[in-house]
Specification:
about 375 residues, alpha+beta, Chorismate synthase, AroC fold, five-stranded antiparallel sheet, 18 strands, about 25% helix, globular, binds flavin mononucleotide
């Protein structure tokens, strides 16, 4: 079964490999009439580009996007939008050795088992570069959401065991430092931790947090297309993500109902909640409060220490990985989490438009 398409109405198909000619995405189901240009997409891609921070792979790629279809005279036409980024810094020689063995923590073994052979250059389709297509599509979804007054924002919440102090929250700081943390003090600590990891030829994991502001209530399709379930799928489909949390997440199992329940109240004449432990959904449907989610990333699997593994001939061997790799994935993955969240929220907003007869009547009986 193919698995490169995500979404029901706002549907994206990503394509391309790390060391192929290009990578990209086809976005089908984007409404006509959105003002869109390459700069809108490029601003998002620049946030995930290699070499953008000193804790990212030093592979230098311009990652310049080309819009091939679906936009005419500066506006989306309602037809498929195809976007492409050419690979310009491939060094397949860095990877020629990898053809013969399975790198620990990578998808080499599982791709071989599934397909019988694999594109070993930089991980092929399992490479972090696959996320280029997601980010390009996410830029469009975010722009559409902004038209509805809905804003998706992600940032680095933790690197190793260093977490952001929310009392210091400063998004400008996050967008300008090397860790993506919205807290100068935590960012400096995390940078020191990452330097130690690099000196030890090791890597670090971390957490990306994401919020959706001005989310209307009523979005999500029980029972198999719940908002939280679809967000979980979107986030867990990102390489290296090992866990997803909404609201207080795993901590709820250790609390009590009297603390965990978000009490309802009236605020400015509207139904509201006094707390948001749930993270903005109840029964898989948005409750009108902020959507709060977290994505937990494992440490970058490519480390430069000697490691034990097995080759394709079934022999146990010791390897030392070469090439260019991020000592931590999280800072570059912030925009990927933001993109997948925006794509999911937009798709579910569009799906919701058929939920009620009165909405359909309002639409057709103008
Ligand atoms: C944005 C992004 C960048 C990544 N960069 C690297 C990298 O430089 N080196 C590496 O070993 N893994 C990197 N990865 C992770 C691997 O792609 C991923 O861990 C691997 O394919 C195994 O998949 P799994 O961890 O989901 O099981 C990156 C992932 C993402 C999302």
């Amino acid at each position: 079964m193919a698995g490169s398409t995500f979404g029901t109405i706002f549907k994206i198909t990503t394509w391309g490999e790390s060391h192929g000619a290009a990578l990209g995405v086809v976005v089908d189901g984007c409404p006509a009439g959105l003002a869109l240009c390459e700069e809108d997409i490029q601003a998002f891609l620049d946030r995930r580009k290699p070499g953008a921070t000193k804790f990212a792979t030093q592979r230098k790629e311009a990652d310049s996007v080309e819009i091939l279809s679906g936009v005419f005279e500066g506006k989306t036409t309602g037809t498929p939008i195809s976007m492409l980024v050419r690979n310009t810094s491939q060094r397949s020689s860095d990877y020629s050795e990898i053809a013969s063995y399975y790198r620990p923590g990578h998808a080499d073994y599982t791709f071989d088992q599934k397909y019988g052979f694999r594109d070993y250059r930089g991980g092929g389709r399992s490479s972090g570069r696959e996320t280029i297509g997601r980010v390009a599509a996410g830029a469009i979804a975010s722009k559409l959401l902004e038209q509805l007054g809905i804003f998706v924002t992600a940032y680095t919440y933790a690197i190793g065991d260093i977490t952001v102090n929310m009392e210091h929250f400063d998004l400008e700081e996050a967008r300008n430092n090397h860790t993506g943390m919205p807290d100068k003090e935590a960012s400096e600590k995390a940078a020191a931790y990452l330097r130690t990891c690099m000196e030890n030829l090791d890597s670090a994991g971390g957490v990306v947090a994401c919020s959706v502001k001005n989310m209307p209530a009523g979005i999500g399709e029980p029972v198999f297309e719940k908002l939280d379930a679809n967000l979980a799928k979107a986030i867990l489909s990102i390489g290296a993500v090992k866990a997803f949390e909404i609201g207080d997440g795993t901590a709820v199992s250790m609390t009590k109902g009297s603390i965990n329940n978000d009490c309802f109240c009236i605020n400015n004449g509207k139904v509201s909640k006094t707390t948001n432990h749930a993270g903005g959904t109840l029964g898989g449907i948005s409750d009108g409060s902020e959507i709060l989610l977290k994505a937990y990333f494992k440490p970058t699997p490519s480390i430069f220490q000697e490691q034990k593994t097995v080759n394709r001939n079934g022999e146990e061997i010791a390897i030392q990985i070469k090439g260019r790799h991020d000592p931590v994935i999280v800072p570059r993955a912030v925009v990927v989490v933001e993109a997948m969240t925006a794509i999911t929220i937009l798709d579910m907003l569009l799906q919701n438009m058929t939920a009620r007869l009165d909405s359909i009547q309002n639409f057709y009986q103008k």
